[in-house]
Amino acid sequence: MTRAANSLELPSSDANEQERGATFRPKFDANGLLTAVAVDDATGDILMLAHMDRTALAATLETGEVHYYSRSRGKLWKKGETSGQIQTVRRILVDCDQDALVIRVTVGGDGGACHTGARSCFYRALGEDGTLVRPED
Amino acid sequence: MTRAANSLELPSSDANEQERGATFRPKFDANGLLTAVAVDDATGDILMLAHMDRTALAATLETGEVHYYSRSRGKLWKKGETSGQIQTVRRILVDCDQDALVIRVTVGGDGGACHTGARSCFYRALGEDGTLVRPED
């Protein structure tokens, strides 16, 4: 799935083509971002949710390793570059209007995804009383 | 988990509190939105990804049925109001910085989530040749 950033097709104004076509037409929002959900390919667990700009998506397709755009740092971010938690792409699913991706990955390093040390970023649940609980604790 | 919109706590500037605390402090972006991923509670399948503003999140917590903010229509959107595909909340997971939610749901109506008729919005995969394929076809 090697693809250069400038070869990514533009979204179609024809909803039928965008939603039912076979052409990958990633739709970036007004900030130039789309949303990506990383899922552990082995377990199906959702690991994290982050954003990609055109450059990050192209780098992901070119290398087979997931790159995001860090909104807080304002730059390209190769996941795992410092932590070793490299996310190798196994499969990319695209939603109806092509503004969101589910990326099934194999994770390097310790197998986790969250900078807090948790395996998944979604380590807290909203309890009945409105407070957050950590089910795994 | 009933909660009025105006009683939702604000995000903390203390990362430790935001990431490890027990207080739900949903973090809306510059557009007043956070991201929600709806997951079928029975199967674990990702059904859709959409956005919530403060009103939509509060309505979700108050009613136990998922409400989103439609970016295209610019208004509150109770999922399933016309289609019958009501999403009843079973569990809400919150990510580290509290700007994304995973909502495990039971789906009413025909059990689907996508306006195209597909069960999940993620019905296409990016194939090796860079085109989109429908694995279920």
Structure description:
- The structure is a homodimer of 137-residue chains.
- The first copy, chain A, is mainly beta.
- Chain A has a domain at 5-10 and 26-114: Phosphoribosyl-AMP cyclohydrolase (Ubiquitin-like (UB roll)).
- Helix content of chain A is 12%, strand content 31%.
- Chain A has two helices and eight strands.
- In chain A, the strands form three sheets. Chain A has a four-stranded mixed β-sheet with strand order 2-1-6-5. A two-stranded antiparallel sheet of chain A has the order 3-4.
- In chain A, a hairpin with a 5-residue loop joins strand 1 and strand 2 (46-52).
- The radius of gyration of chain A is 16 Å and the shape is globular.
- Chains A and B meet through strand 1, strand 2, strand 5, strand 7 and strand 8 of A and strand 1, strand 2, strand 5, strand 7 and strand 8 of B.
- Strand 7 (124-126) of chain A pairs antiparallel with strand 5 (87-94) of chain B, so a sheet runs across the interface.
- Chains A, B: It catalyses: 1-(5-phospho-beta-D-ribosyl)-5'-AMP + H2O = 1-(5-phospho-beta-D-ribosyl)-5-[(5-phospho-beta-D-ribosylamino)methylideneamino]imidazole-4-carboxamide; 1-(5-phospho-beta-D-ribosyl)-ATP + H2O = 1-(5-phospho-beta-D-ribosyl)-5'-AMP + diphosphate + H(+).
- Chains A, B: Its EC number is 3.5.4.19.
- Chains A, B: Its cofactor is Zn(2+); Mg(2+).
- Chains A, B: Pathway: Amino-acid biosynthesis; L-histidine biosynthesis; L-histidine from 5-phospho-alpha-D-ribose 1-diphosphate: step 3/9; Amino-acid biosynthesis; L-histidine biosynthesis; L-histidine from 5-phospho-alpha-D-ribose 1-diphosphate: step 2/9.
- Chains A, B: Zn(2+) binds at residues 96, 114, 121.
